[in-house]
Design goal:
This is DnaJ homolog subfamily C member 25. One of its GO terms (cellular component) is endoplasmic reticulum membrane. This protein has helices at 2-31, 49-53, 61-75, 91-109, 111-122, 127-139, 145-175, 179-191, 194-198, 208-226, 242-247, 249-269, 276-287, 291-295, 299-307, 313-333, 335-347. It is an all-alpha fold and 357 residues long. It folds into 4 domains: 49-139, Helix Hairpins (Orthogonal Bundle), CATH 1.10.287.110; 146-197 and 207-236, no CATH class; 243-271; 273-343, no CATH class. 9% of the residues are buried.
């Protein structure tokens, strides 16, 4: 009776001894951080960022900042002085230690970066995912991309505005030198009495040069008010700037969709006849001209297009052929073109000549 009981007690004691021996091995994965998670090139490399600062994983931001300041003062290259425990440490190694401390602090002070680092410690097997998160955060621009785009668009819009104003003023200055427009503007200025005001004498007597400049400005202002310049030299409009074009893009898109649906319904489904606006639109598309280019054409040219019914494809092909033939005749009779063809035939760039020495 006593023997079986003794055997049972012995077995229980042996089991307890085995449990005591195995328990440290079971606690190792729970207490120790996985060393294989620390990879050279990521964060603090093969060193644990928490161990570098001497804090635990549950440390607060204030504790991390305090530990960093203490270590930074100790290892800063300009202030480093060897302490009793640093006999074998050189200034070079102190500088490396300072950089490691700074890297650890940069890693742990940011909540998102710290979260990625903790995840790497807990999931060492996700090797490529850690590389992606690390470098995506490092290479992501610090400034919001939307702000950069907005500033760029505003800068381009300002440049557009002043560039267009410069072109417009150049066009006005040129028109002021053309006799046809200058004479008409001068007659209008005389009828309105503007030139007499410029030549008034009195207390504020002006020099001849000042009077000349004022008369020139009066003529230019009359030309501006009476002439509608189209094309690339037209008066700049705020709505034509890139910024406002982007803002109004949804409106323009909805308008185009509504216009296209109305076109399909009226002319393809119901079979209505084209109006003048629709005919000019088809002609412009056939000529592959932009709206601004087509609007810059003279009114009599547009009337000619309508009279010849160029919105009809067959008529436009005939007109196109006539224009090509006319261009060929002009070039054939042009003296400069003749000289160019003669030069290309006799001394063109593709001819080889051999000169006897």
């Amino acid at each position: 009776m006593a023997a079986p009981q003794a055997r049972r007690w012995g077995a229980a004691a042996a089991g307890r001894r085995r449990l005591v021996l195995l328990s440290p091995l079971l606690l190792v994965p729970l207490l120790a951080r996985p060393a294989e998670a620390l990879v050279e090139g990521l964060y603090c490399g093969t060193r644990d960022c928490y161990a570098v600062l001497g804090v635990s994983r549950s440390a607060s931001k204030a504790e991390i900042a305090r530990a960093y300041r203490q270590l930074a003062r100790r290892y800063h290259p300009d202030r480093y002085r060897p302490e009793p425990g640093d006999e074998g440490q050189s200034p070079r190694s102190a500088e490396e230690a300072f950089l490691l401390v700074a890297t650890a602090y940069e890693t742990l002070k940011d909540e998102e970066t710290r979260k990625d680092y903790d995840y790497m410690l807990d999931h060492p097997e996700e090797y490529y995912s850690h590389y992606y998160h690390y470098y995506s955060r490092r290479l992501t621009p610090k400034v919001d991309v939307r702000i950069v785009i907005l500033v760029s668009v505003c800068a381009i819009s300002v440049f557009q505005f002043f560039s267009w104003w410069n072109s417009y003023n150049k066009a006005i200055s040129y028109l002021a030198t053309v006799p046809k427009y200058r004479i008409q503007a001068t007659e209008i200025a005389k009828q309105q009495g503007l030139l007499k005001k410029a030549k008034e004498k009195g207390r504020n007597k002006k020099s001849k040069e000042e009077i000349r400049d004022e008369e020139e400005n009066i003529i230019k202002n009359i030309i501006k008010s009476k002439i509608d310049i189209k094309g690339g030299y037209q008066k700049p409009q705020i709505r034509d700037l890139l910024l406002f074009q982007i803002i109004l893009a949804p409106f323009h898109l909805c308008s185009y969709i509504a216009w296209y649906c109305r076109w399909i319904y009226n002319f393809n489904i119901k079979g209505k006849e084209y109006g003048e606006e629709e005919r000019l639109y088809i002609i412009r598309k056939s000529m592959k001209m932009s709206k601004s280019q087509f609007d810059s054409l003279e009114d009599h040219q547009k009337e000619t297009f309508l009279k010849r019914e160029l919105w009809i494809k067959e008529n436009y092909e005939v007109y196109k052929q006539e224009q090509e033939e006319e261009l060929k005749k002009k070039l054939a009779n042009d003296p400069r073109w003749k000289r160019y063809r003669r030069w290309m035939k006799n001394e063109g760039p593709g001819r080889l000549t051999f000169v006897d020495d």
